[in-house]
Design brief:
Length: 82
């Protein structure tokens, strides 16, 4: 569904957001370059899941790091769909 690369070790994102949100792997994914199969993303309900995560974090006043944070959260919560 989505091709990503791991974030560089011990960077600003990892240091500041690892304790605040779920991430894939040790350092999370980097959203700088994404390979996306849009058909599979639509079948998966990507937009709905992204909006659900955003709403949850907004209502509960939790912090996440923009698009990269949401991508990490959605993929971490759905490990079989990576």
């Amino acid at each position: 569904m989505i091709g990503v690369i791991e974030e560089a070790p011990y960077n600003w994102f990892f240091k500041n957001y690892r304790p605040l949100q779920p991430m894939i792997g040790k350092y999370g994914v980097n959203s700088g370059v994404l390979l996306m199969n849009l058909t599979r993303m639509r079948e998966f309900g990507w937009i709905s899941k992204v909006l659900t995560v955003h709403k949850y974090y907004a209502i509960n006043q939790k912090e996440y790091f923009a698009d990269q944070g949401i991508i990490n959260i959605v993929l971490e919560e759905n490990p079989g769909k990576r």
